[in-house]
Amino acid sequence: PAKLRVSEAVSGAHLGANVKVQGWLRSVRPQKANLFLHVNDGSALQSLQVVASSELNDPLLTLGSAVEVTGTLRKSPHQKQPVELEADQIHVVGDCNPVDFPFKKKERHSLEYIRQFPHLRCRTNAFSSLLRIRSEATTAVHSYFKENGFVQIHTPVITSNDCEGAGELFRVEVSSSDIKFFSVPAFLTVSGQLHLEVMSGAFSRVYTFGPTFRAENSQSRRHLAEFYMVEAEVSFTQSLEDLTKVMEDMFRSATEHVLAHCAADVDLFHKHVTPGHRVSPQGHLLFGVTYSEAIDILNHSSQKFAFPTDWGCDLQTEHEKYLVKHCGNVPVFVTDYPYDLKPFYARDNQDHPKHTAAAVDLLVPGVGELCGGSLREERLDLLRARLEETGLEDTYSWYLDLRRFGSVPHGGFGLGFERFLQCILGVDNIKDVIAFPRFSHSCLL
Ligand code: 4AD
Ligand code: MG
Questions:
Q1: pLDDT tens column, 15-74
Q2: Which of 40, 110, 342, 383 is deepest in the core (most CB within 10 A)?
Q3: Hey, which of 419, 422, 424 would you mutate to test ligand 1's pocket, going by the most ligand atoms within 8 Å of its Cβ?
Q4: What is the ipTM of this complex?
Q5: Are 81 and 27 in contact (CB under 8 A)?
Q6: Ligand 1 near 416 CB (within 6 A)
Q7: Using CA atoms, how far apart are residues 253 and 129, in angstroms rounded to an integer?
Q8: pTM
Q9: Rounded to the nearest whole angstrom, what is the distance from the C-alpha of residue 415 to the centroid of ligand 1?
């Protein structure tokens, strides 16, 4: 018999064929004359219905056990599944004790419940759909950049710079000895931006998409210690609009791709998760306010905020959520943040008395900040002066070189990939959109 994946078997292309299918049991229904099984191997959302005579029943055929079924594919009399496998032989490859197995027949387990089993939750329908969607969303991101002439750069995971200057670095050391492996302190990257800036000076348009690490002592629903970030850097940008255009295009294109390619998985996922604040890619004009306008909006609101809203304050989650609501529950760009709030690389708007930098955040319903970006300070004298103020001019002498040798106006942004998934699927907790979440006090597996 030909070995088929479940996705091939259910496609209907092999009716009448003698086949072998391998997978795990998602349901077991013994009836008088027949035994009905659902076999899933993750290749598709659908499971393959297996019909066997009761003689083939075996006490080891239980929810979660691994099986190999040989038989003939035929048209199913039931409308729910067009194809079923009439079994001649069922072999239990690995049994699964139903008493100990944490997932039970016919129960719809919540995302909170299955989160307790990071090594097993991929066996549930909801989480396997989520992981297939995540995989397709990865493809969507790469497709967007490929179609738009960006070169992908593998920026390093180990680095000696603290790009964001926020002091949330994990240090890298040799575990078994006191040997200093690197001659300078080394850290896990918080952002590939500075390496991308190097590359934008040769390729004009570059991006990176990989793991990013922050020692944020936060138990929030939108922070992880290890998350995936999509970062892009574009040379010859004249204004923040050039940048927000790329952010908006990428967001829209990736969202449309996912909804078009994963419709069935998205539907199934939403049988388990009520999407509270899903963003549709169509029909929404991305709205823009300046930071100063945002502060005015917050100060005129009747809502009492826990954090201050004076000009110069960083926007907190509660502020971001309010702004999104105020603007009609659509994605909102906030531009021109106070200069002093932004890292050394942000471009000085040289305005006063309210001194701002050409930085932008994209806020989205339910999540708040999804992207952060800016124009970069390309003027050597201004950049050098700012680095000197903080004593960083030696550390970043290579970065200053980029401004000495063919400097051009440029800018870029980073999008939190997990927050993107939260946003398009309406998932409340970031830990439910990544296979193995890492956060403070938790590094399971
Ligand atoms: O706003 P951030 O800190 O921006 C940067 O790191 C820039 N250097 C990016 C660039 O311009 N190339 O981070 C970018 C995005 C945030 O908007 C957020 O979506 C996500 O990364 N993010 C996190 N996601 C999950 N857990 C965390 N701890 C995150 N911190 C940031
Ligand atoms: Mg930010």
A1: 999 999 999 999 999 998 999 999 999 998 999 999 999 999 999 999 999 999 999 999
A2: 383
A3: 419
A4: 0.99
A5: no
A6: yes
A7: 21
A8: 0.95
A9: 6
- Give the angle subtended at the CA of 438 by the CAs of 418 and 316, to the nearest 5°: 60
Distances in whole angstroms, Cα of residue 129 to Cα of each of 133, 269, 411: 6, 6, 35
Ligand nearest, relative to CA of residue 192: 1
Answer yes or no: is the C-beta of 216 below 6 A from any ligand 1 atom. yes
How many angstroms from the chain centroid is the CA of residue 79? 36
- Burial of 57-91, coded b for 16+ CB within 10 Å and e otherwise, reads eeeebbbbbbbebbbbbeebeeeeeebbbebeebe
**CA-proximal residue: ligand 1, atom 9 (nearest):** 414
> Could you give all domains of the chain from N- to C-terminal order, each with its CATH number?
2-101 (2.40.50.140), 121-432 (3.30.930.10)
What is the bridge-based pairing of β-strands 356-364 and 332-338? antiparallel
Q: Are strands 332-338 and 66-75 parallel, antiparallel or unpaired?
A: unpaired
Six-digit token pair at 106?
């016919």
**Residue showing tokens 């040798």:** 405
